[in-house]
């Protein structure tokens, strides 16, 4: 019986660097390859927004995406200590505009759609309301409204339900707080996770009683690992590792980028149970000699935890390791190469497991 995947196909229009893209078929484990600026990271961000059913998490993800691609001067989370000047508001508006593929430079291009079927009520619609025409106006678009911290600058709509973000939210750090449920999509960017994010992940892993899953993954790089703990008065994140070769615990951060990367991936995978895991540039921090084991673990946990995985890479070693892990797993793995066309649309070339195996054997370039 086929698994009930959160996403079996995907269509993106007008989102970030993607004018139009269709992925007609998706598997439980998916890898996107392509040159720089082909749209790989934008695909992960689009999936992150679309699959998130909780509107609070979706709005938080949208704000994080906006801020990650801009140089905004963020204010304190409690709000501004003084009036927000017009230049800051204009910067925030420009940052939100970065969510959209504005190929013609017109206000009408500040709209995007993401979904398995853009004509269905489940499709996600994004827009900038300050540029929209009044419903009664059949003429040219009205000029933008005067900007203020309360200006509704981003609308996310699914069906007849919409949520809005104000300019003041764009200028603050991403909204914090705890929800009873976890986000459906766990996202790890190309630069990894902050110490605070790692602490939050581990706290939630311990609450779920899944520490052994993360520790098992870490033993790919640290075979002498005994356990992972969190100590409040330890610096550099408070997460420590007990090794059977040392008498005292060592901090996670002191073990190098590869260990931190695997820790984040493993913890996010555990928390993504029943949902989606997104990893941008999965090879970052990982030596080519361990990539096969990392991919094998990803396939194994994807099956055990019912997680749909999406990753991007620039690395041939990652493609080769993905192919070997897919061949050994009962799960289907799918590889897409993304190519940007002259008109701004993105062409997706799909490779079956057999085609990826042939490419790997003959060293045919698919990136």
Structural commentary:
A 6-stranded antiparallel β-sheet has the order 2-1-4-5-6-7. Strands 8-12-13-3-14-15 form a 6-stranded mixed β-sheet, sandwiched between helices. The protein has a 3-stranded antiparallel β-sheet with strand order 9-10-11. Helix content is 32%, strand content 22%. It has 2 domains: 1-48 and 272-367, P-loop containing nucleotide triphosphate hydrolases (Rossmann fold), CATH 3.40.50.300; 55-178, no CATH class. The chain is an alpha/beta fold and 367 residues long.
Summarize the structure.
The protein has about 375 residues and is of the alpha/beta class.
Return the CATH architecture of the largest domain.
Answer: 3-Layer(aba) Sandwich
What count of structural domains? 2
**For the record, what CATH class of the largest domain applies?**
Alpha Beta
Number of strands: 15
Most strands sheet: 6 strands, antiparallel
CATH topology term of the largest domain: Rossmann fold
Q: Poorly predicted ranges (pLDDT <50, ≥5 residues)? A: none
Mean pLDDT: 87
Q: What is the strand content? A: 15-25%
Distance between the termini: 32 Å
Structural class computed from helices and strand pairing: alpha/beta
Let me know the CATH homologous superfamily of the largest domain: P-loop containing nucleotide triphosphate hydrolases
Order of helices and strands: EEEHHHEEEEHEHHEEEHEHEHEEH
Q: Count of helical segments?
A: 10
């Amino acid at each position: 019986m086929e698994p009930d995947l959160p996403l079996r196909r995907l269509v993106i229009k007008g989102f970030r660097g993607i004018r139009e893209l269709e992925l007609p078929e998706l598997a439980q484990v998916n890898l996107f390859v392509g040159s720089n600026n082909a749209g790989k990271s934008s695909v992960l961000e689009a999936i992150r927004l679309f699959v998130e059913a909780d509107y609070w998490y979706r709005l938080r993800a949208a704000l994080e995406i906006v801020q990650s691609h801009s140089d905004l001067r963020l204010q304190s989370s409690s709000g501004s200590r003084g009036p927000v000047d017009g230049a800051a508001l204009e910067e925030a508006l420009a940052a939100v505009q970065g969510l959209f593929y504005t190929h013609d430079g017109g206000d009408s291009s500040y709209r995007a759609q993401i979904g398995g079927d853009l004509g269905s009520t489940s499709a996600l619609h994004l827009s900038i309301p300050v540029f929209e025409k009044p419903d009664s106006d059949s003429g040219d678009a009205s000029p933008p409204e005067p900007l203020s911290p309360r200006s509704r600058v981003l609308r996310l709509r699914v069906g007849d339900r919409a949520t809005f973000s104000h300019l003041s939210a764009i200028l603050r750090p991403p909204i914090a707080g705890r929800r009873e449920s976890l986000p459906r999509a766990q996202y790890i960017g190309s630069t990894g996770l902050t110490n605070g994010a790692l602490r939050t992940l581990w706290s939630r892993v311990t609450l779920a009683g899944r520490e052994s899953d993360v520790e098992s993954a870490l033993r790919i790089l640290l075979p002498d690992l005994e356990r992972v703990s969190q100590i409040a008065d330890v610096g550099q994140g408070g997460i420590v590792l007990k090794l059977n070769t040392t008498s005292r615990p060592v901090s996670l951060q002191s073990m190098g980028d590869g260990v931190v990367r695997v820790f984040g991936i493993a913890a996010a995978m555990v928390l993504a149970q029943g949902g989606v895991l997104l990893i941008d540039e999965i090879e970052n921090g990982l030596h080519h000699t361990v990539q096969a084991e990392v991919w094998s673990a990803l396939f194994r946990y994807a099956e055990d935890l019912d997680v749909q995985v999406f990753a991007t890479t620039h690395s041939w070693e990652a493609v080769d390791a993905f192919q070997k892990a897919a061949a050994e797993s009962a799960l289907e793995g799918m590889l897409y190469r993304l190519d940007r066309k002259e008109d701004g649309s993105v062409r997706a070339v799909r490779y079956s497991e057999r085609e990826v195996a042939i490419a790997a054997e003959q060293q045919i370039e698919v990136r």
